[in-house]
């Protein structure tokens, strides 16, 4: 009997055999996107709508070639909203929400904030939507990424000013808070990233030299000049980078350096404070 449930289950099986980690969740998202409903649960003899069948089948084939689900459906959920994504930007990751959480918890409701390497704009836009009285700026070296971020800000009604800049090069102001999820993957780890990431996410958003610290070195060396007195820097870091990141910020004169861990217990975020 040819119904949606059979089609769905056959597709889940294909992904499972190909070694995908979340075949059911992937197929659910793809089906919802293609059919505009969760009719994959239907067990009755509903005949398949040919159009839905064709586009769902095509979506599953794209997934089988390792394309991320987010690129096929065109968005990724992050914090409280949905962000348009494409091949020019890194997919927002759930662990990055920790940066937004840290900023939201700061007592002041009116802050000047800079997000360096904004990608989709997920951090800057989420902060702007949460802290409506704040002044939020976001930069990236990639013009394509800035195009995506500007589109997302407009769609979501967030007030963010975008700047094309190589880290601090074109930044004129100073800020209460500077955040970033910079590239931090070291050369050795690049080749062991999942194929989905290697083939479809921009290298510019991932690679950070031999030790994965190249971008942090540039950011840490200038951070003090761009923070207001008592200002805070909040950055995502990679697994096993805690010690080198601590040394780096200490070298540049920061005394208050705190690390925070994600739900898996891995060091994930560093907060540094400039003396008041
Ligand atoms: C890991 S992605 C983070 C994207 C987004 N903030 C997020 O958390 O999903 C790093 C971002 O830094 C940007 N980037 C890389 N080198 C840069 C540079 N020299 N100056 C500014 N941005 C840079 C990349 O284009 C990319 O968008």
Helix tally equals 11
Q: Name the CATH homologous superfamily of the largest domain.
A: Vaccinia Virus protein VP39
**Helix and strand sequence:** HHHHEEHEHEHEEHHHEHEE
Any idea what the CATH architecture of the largest domain is?
3-Layer(aba) Sandwich
Quote the average pLDDT.
94
**End-to-end distance, in Å?**
71 Å
Please identify the structural class as seen in this structure.
alpha/beta
Ligands in the model, by name, code or SMILES, are: S-adenosylmethionine
Largest pleated sheet: 7 strands, mixed
Q: What would you call the quaternary organization?
A: single chain
Q: How many domains, in number, for the residues?
A: 2
CATH topology of the largest domain: Rossmann fold
Query: Proportion of β residues?
Result: 15-25%
Uncertain runs:
none
Number of strands: 9
Shape assignment: elongated
Rg on CA atoms, Å: 21 Å
* Percentage of residues in helical conformation: 40-55%
CATH class of the largest domain: Alpha Beta
Strand arrangement, major sheet = 5-4-3-6-7-9-8
Brief overview:
By secondary structure, this protein is an alpha/beta fold.
Could you characterize what this model shows?
The chain is 40% helix and 19% strand. By secondary structure, the protein is α/β, with parallel strands linked by helices. The chain has 2 domains: 4-65; 76-273, Vaccinia Virus protein VP39 (Rossmann fold). The strands form 2 sheets. Strands 5-4-3-6-7-9-8 form a 7-stranded mixed β-sheet, sandwiched between helices. A two-stranded antiparallel sheet has the order 1-2. The radius of gyration is 21 Å and the shape is elongated. The relative contact order is 0.10. Bound molecules: S-adenosylmethionine. The site of S-adenosylmethionine has 23 residues, from helix 6 and strand 4.
């Amino acid at each position: 009997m040819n119904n949606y449930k059979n089609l769905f289950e056959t597709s889940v099986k294909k992904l499972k055999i190909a070694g995908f980690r979340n075949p059911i969740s992937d197929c659910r998202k793809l089906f919802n996107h293609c059919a505009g409903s969760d009719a994959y649960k239907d067990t009755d003899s509903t005949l398949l709508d040919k159009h839905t069948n064709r586009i769902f089948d095509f979506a599953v084939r794209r997934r089988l070639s390792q394309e991320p689900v987010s690129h096929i459906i065109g968005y990724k959920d992050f914090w409280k909203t949905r962000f348009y994504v494409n091949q020019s930007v890194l997919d927002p990751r759930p662990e990055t929400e920790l940066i937004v959480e840290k900023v939201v918890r700061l007592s002041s409701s009116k802050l000047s904030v800079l997000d360096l390497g904004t990608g989709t704009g997920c951090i800057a836009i989420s902060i702007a939507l949460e802290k409506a009285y704040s002044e939020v700026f976001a930069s990236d070296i990639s013009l394509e990424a800035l195009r995506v971020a500007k589109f997302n800000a407009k769609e979501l009604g967030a007030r963010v000013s975008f700047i094309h800049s190589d880290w601090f090069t074109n930044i004129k102001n100073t800020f209460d808070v500077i955040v970033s999820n910079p590239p931090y993957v070291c050369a050795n780890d690049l080749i062991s990233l999942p194929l989905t990431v290697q083939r479809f996410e921009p290298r510019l958003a991932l690679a950070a030299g031999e030790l994965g610290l190249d971008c942090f070195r540039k950011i840490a060396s200038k951070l003090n000049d761009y923070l207001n007195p008592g200002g805070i820097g909040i950055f995502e870091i990679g697994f096993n980078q805690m010690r080198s990141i601590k040394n780096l910020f200490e070298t540049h004169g920061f005394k208050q350096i705190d690390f925070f861990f994600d739900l898996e217990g891995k060091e994930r975020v560093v907060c540094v404070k400039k003396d008041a």
